Fold this protein.
Amino acid sequence: MKRFVGIILFVSLVTTIFAQENTFQPEWRFGVNGGITLSRVGFSPSIPQDLLLQETGGLTARYISESHFGLQAELNYSMRGWKQTTDTVQYLYRYARSLAYLELPILTHIYFNLSKHSRLIFNLGPQIAYNLSEKILEKDDPETSEDYYNYFDKTIQNRFDYGITGGGGLEIRTSIGCFLLEGRYFFGLSDIFKNNRGERFQASHNQVIGVKLSYLLP
């Protein structure tokens, strides 16, 4: 009797698994995204900085090829940069520079169903970008003759940028489309300034925290 019950349970489990596999359908979705960025630059030697608040937005394409896994690509216009305040006995000096990038992340998309209409999502992968422009947002003239601040007037030397990005969030699925709220972090592997011997910095890579809301069409 126990053997018979065990066979029934095994057959039921196999039937359930195959039924789930048969009900899965590959899914294409396209949409838009927008949000904010909180950025800084990883300088070495380090410089005290505050996070620079700006914006980002773009297009999203996602293909889910199998249960729980897919691929997501985006084409975004993203603002980065850095902001610093130097407070000494002689003066208080503020400086902020904004960097505009066209970026292309190619992400592995992983999701877990929380309910029929909600998912926990994770995205991780490489990202490449190109600097389109730069703008000084804030600049005071320091009362010093030191060469320490000479990089403030130096334009970006390496416009091509690449690195790793990843994050997670929540997806709500409705009859009019999918709404995704996601937090993401980008760590740049290239430098915006040259890092040759004798240069001011040995490292100057972008670091960006992003929060965005995406809408994908059904």
